[in-house]
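Quick check before the chapter quiz. The format below is the same one you will see on the exam, so make sure you can read both the input and the output lines.
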Amino acid sequence: MDPLSETLSLLNTHNSFFAGLKAGGDWAIDFPPPDGIKFNAIVEGTCWLMVQGVEQPIRLTAGDCFLLPRKRAFSLRSDLSFPAIHSDAIYRHAVNGIASCGTADEFFLIGGRFDFGEEARLLFDGLPPVAVIKSGSDQASVLNWALQRIAHELTNPALGNSIVVQHLGHIMLVQVLRIYLIQEGNTAPSWLLAISDPRIGATIQAIHADPARSWSVESLAKIAGVSRSTFALRFKQKSGVAPLEYVLRWRMQLATRLLKTNHTTISSIAQKLGYDSDSAFSHAFKRIMTCSPREYRERVAPISQQ
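Here is the expected output.
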């Protein structure tokens, strides 16, 4: 399994939500910071997007998508000077998940929100406050297909609607991440950039295949086929963290999943991930997760039982 598929498969979707927006005339809507990862796609019409902390407004047209990987307020507007209303004012009257604003005959948007919890930090840390995916490329064809299907499901609800929309939403999320990776100018260090590099990606696959191994920079550099110093520098430039720091973070990603399984003891998790003692594992876990493995298990137990 490739690293992106593996990492997404490890993420627990605490909840997901999909909705639509139809608008027309002069309109402007303020949205609160979303819980989790938010993406929207324009089906019809055009609008302006404003994101908290981003200086310039962004013009979006039909087929464009945007991803908000951080908790930031944003606005959608037909006119930048028009006074905005709060999203609650229209979404409380939504029908089949679709809200209406103004004449509701010129603009159609669909949106999804995934709450992966703290486990998603590895995947989404390093991405900008907003990632915009423009329409028109060959790579966007799958995205556009999923976009049209979700739009159809939202406007024509039928049996099995919720599960179809959820799976289509996951397809759109993966495709947005794929397209973001190949767009020019996306060179800020991130996990996504690291796995797209052939040499660094090969070492990440090796770490994922054998997380309990006593990895060293030298052994990983051999897999990459470069010198130790070149590898260490390139790994940090691409991922934003040192190679052995990544090994630690990946182990803790696996640990959080295992800790949610009540029948797996902390000692067995420590051994499975290559730690000689419970205390060494606990120290490593607390460094990344800011709590002990036992505290983490107690905290997530109510969620896993829902």
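If your answer matched, good. The mean pLDDT is 86.
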